[in-house]
Structures are given as structure tokens and as C-alpha cells.
Amino acid sequence: METKKINCQNCEEPFDEGFKFCPNCGQKTNEELTIGVLFYNTISNYFSFDARFLKSFIPLMFRPGYLAKRFLAGKRLLYLHPAQMYLFVSVIFFFLFSFVVAEWKKEANAINKKIVESEVVEQLPDEAQKQFDSIQKAKVLESLKKNKALLGMTDEDLKKTDSIIQLQNGNNLKTSWDFNKKKVDSLIDAGADDAIIYKEMGMSNDAGFFEKRIYAGFLNLMKGSGAGSVIQRSVDAVPIAMFILLPLFALLLKLFYFKRGRYSHHLVFSFYFFSFLFTLFSLLLCIDLFIVPIPGWISWLLILSTFFYFYVALLNFYRRNWFFTFVKCSIITFVFMLMVIPTTGVLLALFGIMNG
């Protein structure tokens, strides 16, 4: 008796009726699309949240270098794929990090509001005006110093800002930040050219690059481009930065372990190492946000411990002398941190951060 043939709904290849799974592509036959099936397929296909993740979690956290070694040894279905692991934990991290960013944006917007809503005191006696200016300058500088991380300012930027604000009658700057705010607001509402508004705000005719940046930043704040948007754009640049930095990290490993396999081998190691970092940071955020606040010294201690995790992972993965591995680990870490700074700077510039 001839067996009835049916076609697979996925690959459309024929197979004998009675099979629970297609012999050609492996898809389950006659599976009803329920909410449960839809949810499981979404998680399974895009994040591979299955037994392999649970099986990979313990060695990822407590056996440095083990997963990368096993993956290269051919155990590629037993544990979660390195790229899938990285994708999954990075999504979790940035989701949790968004709660922290929301607080940063709130603080930055509070600073923005203080700047925009500050009223100008006019027609004061000279001595009173000078005293008022002095107090206002001190408030501005103190606010900038406390929130320099939120505003993306370096110590050098603060020093230059300090020197600019403290100038009273120098050639570089003709304002003490007591410009007529109502007039500036009316110029903004009228759509006046930025150059005209800068002049009304007191920018000197021969303003240098940094002075122009200061005025551009203040003008953007007055136009409603809140400091919170600056924070958001900075955070938006982080995933792209990691997308660039991870392959560069693998390239560093290739340079220091040139004879220890192809570039793809070092890339596997990098995926698992960065997955560990994101997992650790996600756990810290989860505890700090939803369970109990973590003291700063404990957070820093755990973050510093990642260096020793990296060292042990190199020892286990590359099987080299402990002393030379420690030297290479230190150099790779140092060089990579140097790479982070220019990469982040370029991305922030592309996102419009450096120009306010």
C-alpha cells in the first residue's frame, strides 16, 4: 500500500504522512499557531532562550575561557552560539540601562530648565550688579562641575569654561552671562540667524572654536534642545561603539597571539568575554534597581575584577606562561582603553554631540 505524501509547509518538500518533523528541514508538522507557540518561537529564533542559555550561563560566569574553547573544539550545539549569547545579554543590559539613562536625562533636563528659566536682573547699581554677576558665575561653574559627566565635559573643558566665564572685559568674551533673555527669546521666535543671536548674547567677533561651542550649546538649550537629548544621543552611540570595538578587541588578540589560530577564533573568545561583561553589568543593574542599592565601592571592586577574569580566560584559552600572559593581558587592556576614547569621540561627533 502506497504511503500518502504531503508537502512541508516550510520547505515544500514532500515526505511520508505520519512524520512529526519534516525529514528535510526539521520543522514540526501540523503545528497549530497558538499564543504559546508564537511566544516560544519568537524567543527561540531571535534570542535562543532555551536550555543552551541556561547550560552556558554557569561556565560563562565562573569558568573563564571555557565556552570559547569548547566552541572551537566542535561543541557548537551544546552551548549557546557566541554571537547569539552576545546579542541576548546586550539586549537585556541596554533594557536595564535605560532606567539609569532616564534618571540621567531627568537630572540633565533639570539643569537645562535652570539655565533657560534664569531671569536677568537689570538696572542694578554697579556694585550690586558685580556682586550678582559673581554669584551667578559661581552657580554656573558649580553646576557644571557637579554634572560634567552628564554634559560630556572633560576637565580641560571645565578649565577653559572657567577662564571664559571669569573674564570681565577681555577681548575673548564680552558677556558675563547677563544678556537680555527676553530679547534673545524674541529673536529665536522670529527665526533670526544664529550669528545675530550670538552677537546679542555677547559673543566676541573674533570668537575661537571653543567659545563658539559654548555659545552654540547655550543657544541650543534656549531653543529647547534639552540636555536630556544630549544624554540620549550619547547612549544611542554606545551600541554602535561596541559593534566597532568588539572586532577591534579581537584584532588585538590576533596581534598578540598571532600563531594561535585564525582571526575568527579570537572573535569567538571576544564574543564570550563581552557577553560576560554585559551579563555582570546586567546583574549589578538588576540588583541595584530592583532589590537593594549596591555601594559604590562594591560596584567598582566587581568592575575591576573583570581584569582578572580576562587574565584567567587568556590562560585557559591560549595555554601560555602565566607571567607573559599577565603582561599581554595588561597591555591589551591598556591599548583597548586607549582605543575606546577616540572611537567614542568620533561617534559622539557623528551623533551631533560635540557641536551641541
Keywords:
single chain, about 350 residues, mainly alpha, 14 helices, DUF3667
Tell me about this structure.
InterPro entries: DUF3667. The protein is an all-alpha fold. Strand 1 and strand 2 form a beta hairpin. The longest helix has 36 residues. It is extended and about 90 Å long.
What count of domains describes the coordinates? 3
Query: What portion of the residues fall into strands of 2 or more residues?
Result: under 5%
Q: Name the structural class.
A: mainly alpha
* Overall outline: extended
Pfam families: DUF3667 (PF12412)
Protein name: DUF3667 domain-containing protein
InterPro entries: DUF3667
Keywords: Membrane, Transmembrane, Transmembrane helix
Provide a concise account of the structure shown.
The protein is mainly alpha-helical and 356 residues long. It has helices at 35-47, 51-62, 66-72, 82-117, 126-146, 148-151, 155-166, 181-189, 194-201, 209-223, 227-256, 263-290, 296-318, 322-350, and strands spanning 5-7, 14-16. It contains 14 helices and two strands, in the order ββαααααααααααααα.
